């Protein structure tokens, strides 16, 4: 029964993408949905883009292992990030009337920094997308017996198709449908689990006191991981393109800001449900502890077939929505910042074609990473670390500090990236992300003070 309904659901998703493609007339329609999204669409698509494999398959196992300290780093951090962007960043950036983060670097600094920031952004996404392909492959393997490598290719093909033809319109409509599926599936599954555990109380009763600590225990190593993860999922996510793709797609700056607040609320409340489900599964059957397939295994053992159908539909919804949004973001950057500026005679129709072809290219690179790494949370964290150590400082200081200079931005990018990469090579005890972020911020300030901008420097 499950193997019958899942393909039907996938066909419906593809059908929505095809229907949405009818709205695509220009490159702006493809990348920003004609700047017409309401608050609810902005908030739901933000949530759907970030609520993926990590929240369902990666976070629950870490929550059982580390307790509420992992709730801070893996769940609360996403809501904090979106709230910060809504309160501090969205209004200024929306008024710039831009399409990508790379556009900001061109306007605030110069074209060379636009190129560098765009390359870094594009490089960061394949790991994130790979995490979603790996999760889809696990699902296809568990439900339909498809081998993992074939599952990766199948999942990539589905997402490529409806993102290629429908762009931001397809992403928005499918995100709305998929978010509804996610919520219904998780609520029903939680109800099923709690009915067997006789409420929430028993699932916490067996946990040790250390489980409820909000701060890590275990010395320097534990604190290093804790701080690095929190930085990656809050500050590291601030300059990412998929946030601003939705902000810039909003019909006005109020819808953009309120959509971010709605997304922040959803990113804290809904991802908490899989954690409760995992606790319930561990309470009912201790041998389910550990592993990224904890919740799927528990579903197969403790729920009826109709509930399994809803659950797997919800999981596939979450992963598809994250994959499509994450693939569209770098494809947009490639089209707008790596192709358009260097092709002065490029027509809008050709730009649309190249942006669509970029979706395929990004997916191909992501499949390579998916074949070589199956740690879902690790893949997501890796995708954000590069942005954090290179782009957070010039993006933030450039937006809020008038004294930020081109030299300061270059200093922040190179010193932050070099220190992070060196720490990674030498496997420093303190996470290299912490070193890289600190050095990048200092480099931005010192570099800007030592070499301030000249009047013509931002024109080159």
Q: What does this entry show, briefly?
A:
With 460 residues, this protein is mostly helical. The protein has helices at 2-20, 27-32, 39-50, 53-66, 68-94, 101-108, 111-144, 148-197, 201-205, 220-233, 241-247, 253-269, 272-284, 294-302, 305-339, 348-372, 376-400, 406-425, 432-450. It is built from 19 helices and no strands.
List its traits.
Sodium/glucose cotransporter; globular; mainly alpha; single chain; 460 residues; 78% helix
Plain-language structure description:
By secondary structure, the protein is an all-alpha fold. It has a single domain, classed as Sodium/glucose cotransporter. Helices cover 78% and strands 0% of the residues. It has 19 helices and no strands. It is globular.
Helix content: over 70%
Here the CATH topology equals: Sodium/glucose cotransporter
CATH architecture: Up-down Bundle
Number of helices: 19
- Calculate the mean pLDDT score and round it: 86
Which series of helices and strands comes N to C? HHHHHHHHHHHHHHHHHHH
How many whole angstroms does the radius of gyration measure? 22 Å
Strand content bin: under 5%
Topology, element by element:
Blueprint: H1 2-20, H2 27-32, H3 39-50, H4 53-66, H5 68-94, H6 101-108, H7 111-144, H8 148-197, H9 201-205, H10 220-233, H11 241-247, H12 253-269, H13 272-284, H14 294-302, H15 305-339, H16 348-372, H17 376-400, H18 406-425, H19 432-450
Helix pairs in contact: 1-8, 1-15, 3-8, 3-11, 3-12, 3-15, 4-5, 4-13, 5-10, 5-12, 6-7, 7-8, 7-15, 7-16, 7-17, 8-13, 8-15, 8-16, 10-17, 13-14, 15-16, 17-18, 17-19, 18-19
